[in-house]
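Good morning C.,

I know you're traveling, so I'll keep this short. The sequence:
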Amino acid sequence: MQATKTLHDLGQSLWLDNITRDLLNNGTLKRYIDELSVTGLTSNPTIFDHAISKSSTYDADIAGKAPGARSREELFFELALADLGRAADLFQPVFARTDGVDGWVSLEVSPLLARDTDSTLAAARDLHKRGGKPNLFIKIPGTPEGIPAIEEAIFAGVPINVTLLFSREQYVAAAEAYLRGVERRIAAGLNPDVASVASIFISRWDVAVAGKVPAELTNRLGIAIAQRAYKAYRELLDSPRFQRTANSGGRAQRLLWASTGTKDPKAPDALYVTALAAPFTVNTMPEGTLKAVADHGDIGQALAPDGGDCETVLTAFGRAGIDVDALANRLQDEGAASFVKSWNDLMSRLESKRVAIRKAS
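The tokens, ready to paste straight into the viewer:
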């Protein structure tokens, strides 16, 4: 059986961490849905920057929408929402069949707002309304400033993909913010059924410690961090607190593995997919990783609910001089800064394309 189908049957959702207009126009995304068990999609500023820079398929829209756009940011969101709206329609049958558990697409608020709680909340509400699709997640970073915005967005009924999580502690903070939002909806007599996922970034851990630890620990930190977060996730699902909200109609915030493309050319290209098979989770992966899993992925045992050997492995990293807590905070800060850079690059790309198209007309 194809490995993507094996993971789907195990109970894990496979989402594509990419979107381009070409993927939509040439039927590739539809083929991934039909043939590779893909049931959702995520995006970020870097993905859209690459999509717009490497294709001319956006040029007509840039030329047509640019005169009416109030800013480059406004122009970008018009382009992004058009693409994500088409993708959301492709996933609508999955969304309907799973009663909203699966079949989602994701759009990120401007990363310039990562340290601004009020503006993040306002942007999330506005983008979800403009998107007009029930299966559109708005991505909010799980930074300290993002946590209250997540709670308020959930209370407002906005489905949220919490991004830029790097540790168990960051995951738990995001999960508790989600639960507080749901509990407030229950107390207010509102429907508590507001969907969310919490995205843990994996591969960046191993990139950060490459060459700094003994050979036997190479490419093991990201997986150990994921195991530790998965244990916390399973404990939360078993907790009386979550079960009370579920009894009132709330749903679980699913755990999502992000940044699962292998960065080390010496490591297996499907490393972070085959190692992180787990029911009631999501793995969002780049196209190359998706194809590798479909072609030669070998799915073994599912993750152990108790975290397996993660604490032993993390203790070994501690002995090697790696402060996991400090590194988690650094990675989150660096991730936020990286998205800001990609955002600024994207805005510059749109401006240069707009100028070039205007000169050519």
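Safe travels,
E.
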